[in-house]
Amino acid sequence: MLKTQGYAAPSAKALLEPYSFERREPQDDDVAIDIKYCGICHSDIHQAREEWGDAIFPMVPGHEIAGIVSAVGKKVTKYKVGDKVGVGCFVDSCHTCPQCQQGLEQYCSAGPVFTYNGREYDGTHTYGGYSDKIVVKEDYVLRMPNNLPLDAAAPLLCAGITLYSPLRHWQAGPGKKVGIIGLGGLGHMGVKIAHALGAEVTVLSHSQKKREDAKRLGADQFYSTADPETFTKLQGYFDLIINTVSAELDWNLYLGLLKVDGSLVVVGIPDKPIPIGAFYLVPHRRSLAGSMIGGIRETQEMLDFCGKHSITSDIEVIPIQKVNEAYDRVVKSDVKYRFVIDMSSIKAQ
Ligand code: NAP
Ligand code: ZN
Predict the structure, then answer these.
(1) CA dihedral sign of residues 176, 182, 183, 184
(2) For the purposes of burial, counting CB atoms within 10 Å of the CB of 110, is it exposed (0-12), middle (13-18) or buried (19 or more)?
(3) Which residues make Cβ contacts (< 8 Å) with residue 84, sequence separation at least 6?
(4) 229: which residues sit within 8 A by CB, 6+ positions away?
(5) 158: Cβ below 6 Å to ligand 1?
């Protein structure tokens, strides 16, 4: 077994604290990775605080993992010691259901094995990337573009793919008007990727504070949703709106901003149901949809796309000892735009 040092939430109400545990010895098809950086996703906070229902504790969160291969099993062909690799939100899936066969492992019928707060198919509890090493089957490991720094590329493994997948699925590109609700970790990746895909990008933010940043990140337009005029000015304007916000919003107001045949895609996950008026959908043939991360093939495609366009996340690097402070700041939207833990700090515990 591999002795591993990390940080864990012992229970939903407790702060994260140092935690030692063991990973499996690499099997024939496994890749062992020395984790160098791990992004802090808002989903880590939702789960560590048990906001999405029953969670498994102690919980080592983290699914934006970037590191270097330290060992490979004897059947591994794609990776070798020293390669720059990443791990995202899941580390296994059933391989046999229709979704797995299409490369949509994130929608696996058996449920993908989530990187943390999940169980392997043999029942073993999974621990995530707030730790110094991880062992993952080769098929669930991603290759990081050589030209991107590992710290700023780590958030691509969740925030990047969560926006890339719906932008591609709903065909964002030249001539398309895309709105991104919420300029946070996910939202700022959405702005960069939609811009690189050639779409016109508008940020819909709940204050005026991020106006300059939005433009710098590649947005063509910025509107504050605190101003009721935004919703009259932009009536029927967008082909696609992606909602990255987990706070409760009036989705009907945003449906009103879609053209005929436009789509509102939900990726942020509020904990309460949101009422929808059929009249916001029916007379305009609008769609309301959801989207979750992306499959392995598409995640690699996104990483290669980001490598080609030199797209990374805007990050604030922290030592792991500051993780609880970082959580509070994420909840207050006080981060530009993703915290990334430097895992070399773990040795200083
Ligand atoms: P984040 O960095 O905290 O960003 C959320 C953004 O929401 C904030 O930056 C803020 O943007 C906006 N916001 C915050 N409070 C608000 C309020 N009271 N009213 C309106 N807007 C508010 O979070 P994230 O890491 O991007 O994650 C966002 C959500 O996506 C979370 O629920 C997370 O669990 C979920 N998620 C989903 C997937 C998926 O596969 N579907 C993957 C990863 C994460 P402005 O200041 O610009 O308004
Ligand atoms: Zn995430």
Answers:
(1) negative
(2) middle
(3) 66, 67, 68, 143, 144, 146, 150
(4) none
(5) yes
345's tokens: 């700090």
Question: Please, which residues bridge with residue 67 across strands?
Answer: 35, 85
Query: Relative to the CA of 209, which ligand 1 atom is closest?
Result: 46
Residue 161 Cβ contacting ligand 1 at under 6 Å? no
- Give the position of tokens 């919420």: 182
**Residues around ligand 2, an ion, CB closer than 5 A:** 41, 43, 158
Name the residue at shortest CA distance from atom 33 of ligand 1. 43
Q: How far is the CA of 53 from the centre of ligand 2 (A)?
A: 17
Q: Which of 14, 27, 13, 21 is nearest to 131 (CA)?
A: 21
* Tokens of residue 157, six digits: 């493994």
pTM over 0.90: yes
Q: Is the CB of 225 under 6 A from ligand 1?
A: no
Identity of the amino acid at 279: F
pLDDT at 3: 96
Per the CB < 8 A criterion, the answer to whether 64 and 44 are in contact is no
Query: Which residues, at least 6 apart from 209, have a Cβ–Cβ distance to it below 8 Å?
Result: none
User: At CA 247, angle to CA 241 and CA 253, rounded to 5?
Assistant: 45
CB of 38 closer than 8 Å to CB of 154: yes
User: Ligand 2 center to residue 44 CA distance, Å?
Assistant: 7
Confidence of residue 347 (pLDDT cuts 50, 70, 90): confident
Looking at residue 271, its pLDDT comes to: 82
Domains belonging to the chain, first-starting first, are 2-158+313-348 (3.90.180.10), 160-290 (3.40.50.720)
CA distances from 8 to 56, 63, 135 (A): 11, 14, 18
CB 184 less than 6 A from any atom of ligand 1: yes
| CB-count exposure of residue 226 (10 Å: 0-12, 13-18, 19+) | exposed
- What would the two tokens of residue 77 be? 């062909």
